[in-house]
Amino acid sequence: MNEQHTDAKHMTAGHGYGIYILVWLALLTLTGITVAVAGINLGGLTVAAALIIAAIKSYLVLTIFMHLRIEQTAFKVFVLVALFFIVISFALLFSDFSFMKG
Amino acid sequence: MSLQEHAAPLVSGTQEQAVHPHRDDIASRMGMWLFLFTELLLFGGMFFLYSVYRFENKEAFHNAARELDTLIGTINTAILLTSSLTMALSIAAIQRNKKVLSITLQLINVAFGLVFLINKYFEWSHKISLGLYPKSDILLGMDKGEIVFFGLYYVMTGLHGLHVLIGMVLISVMTNFTIKNIITHENYVKLEAAGLYWHLVDIIWIFLFPLFYLIT
């Protein structure tokens, strides 16, 4: 019984270090892009671009560094539900106060 | 679960199965993920605050953000991203039974956290020396949007910094466990849990950085 809960991850572990280094390089590159884009004043687009790049970086950290990619499906569902909740909360929040005066 | 698991290796390195402890790594990881979701609520609430106040004080936020040092912020971002790398690598190392490599990577990870906090110390000292701290006369004399910006800045980066410190302590404990063979290539879920916490701290900073340092 104990074996089942440890084997799956253990077996996929072996091929390892390279993918982490690749993701790290991608993360640094994306950071560089964010800083570069921030210097260009596109108004609301600059913020949107920064947040989108931040989302991509988070996706890489979640799936590769935090092993979501090789976890059971239940984990992925949990994370998606949590993120969905945050997004909905933001949407409702903005739909409320953006119509208020001042 | 934990007492049995810890006691057995101290008695005899490979006889932990004699006591047949119940062990469920998937549940352990799930437990940490659930905790991470509460952290999402904690910081998420503050990001909500940030978004509302920024929406209502765009100009003031833009002005206030110019006081922040983008270079230090970028360096700190690179430091945290690299520490996430060493964290992930330390787990990969212990999976391949490379104990010394894993310990080294964990120690480097803690060191990165320390450098991050030292940078933060310099940043904050600089601002405080300029009179930009909560309730200072200089700050109170500024636009209300700017006051809010700095309030959010100190609280959010401060709480984040506290999490970095907690993460450093957590990983140091794991390093101790790894040295003592409590964490091994066959039982490393504790290290994974610490890793999950550290990566979340990194993700929070990934969002903090552009929202505070890059809105000029």
What is the overall pLDDT average of chain B? Answer: 91
Beta-strand percent range of chain A: under 5%
Q: How many DSSP E strands of chain A?
A: 0
Q: Which structural category fits the helices and strands of chain B?
A: mainly alpha
Could you tell me how far the N terminus lies from the C terminus of chain A, measured between alpha carbons in angstroms? Answer: 61 Å
CATH architecture descriptor text of chain B: Up-down Bundle
DSSP helix count of chain A?
Answer: 4
CATH topology of chain B: Four Helix Bundle (Hemerythrin (Met), subunit A)
In helices, the fraction of residues of chain A equals: over 70%
Element pattern of chain A in H and E: HHHH
Give the low-confidence spans of chain B.
7-12
The CATH class of chain B is Mainly Alpha
- From the alpha-carbon coordinates, what is the Rg of chain B to the nearest angstrom? 21 Å
- Integer count of domains of chain A: 2
Label the overall shape of chain A.
Answer: flat
Question: How would you sum up this structure in a few lines?
Answer:
The complex is a heterodimer of chains A (102) and B (216). With 102 residues, chain A is mostly helical.
Tags for this entry?
heterodimer, A: 102 residues, mainly alpha, 2 domains, B: 216 residues, Four Helix Bundle (Hemerythrin (Met), subunit A), 8 helices, 0% strand
